[in-house]
Amino acid sequence: MTELPHPVAEVIENELRLLDPEVRGSAPLLAAMLHPDFREIGTSGRLWDRDTVIAALHGEATTRPGPLTASRMRGAELCPGLVHLTFDTEHKGARAHRSSLWRLGDGEWLLYFHQATPFVTSPSVADPFADA
Which residues of 83-112 are buried (b: 16+ CB within 10 A; e: fewer)? Predict the structure, then answer.
């Protein structure tokens, strides 16, 4: 296996931490990993900012997030201080293609933008990532 460039490897580690239910369930840990200007387009198509994501994951009526299983994670350093990741997740049978942009600031990688698009696997449709 080819060794990943250091920034990409570090960002993949951070992304995997964000998928951990302990991190997602902790407002301080989550806040420490999200850029102040963070934006997300969720699987529902809803637009989120940093504060609304944190509030949604930690409201009184919120069910604690369960584990997400990630696969096919790959990344590229677009320029110094900016890494793009793509990967798929599955949670309770729901699947999503995901894309994240991470920015380096003050020595810390912070999630700047995230988008999730739901998908279903069809045996009649070829997987465009199968050979990637």
Answer: bbbbbbbeeeeebbbbebbbbbeeeebbbb
pLDDT of 131 higher than 60? no
pLDDT tens profile 59-111:
655 555 567 789 999 999 999 999 999 999 998 888 999 999 999 999 999 99
**CB-based contacts of 34: which residues, under 8 Å, 6+ apart?**
50, 53, 54, 110, 111
CATH class of 6-61+68-119: alpha beta
> By the 8 A CB rule, do 12 and 85 touch?
yes
> The sheet that has 47-49: what strands, in order across it?
47-49, 34-41, 108-119, 94-105, 82-91, 69-79
d(CA 55, CA 62) in angstroms, rounded, equals 9
Distances (CA, A) of 17 to 9, 68, 96: 12, 11, 18
Considering the entire predicted model, what is its pTM?
A: 0.83
User: Whose structure tokens read 């009649």?
Assistant: 124
Domain boundary assignment for the chain: 6-61+68-119
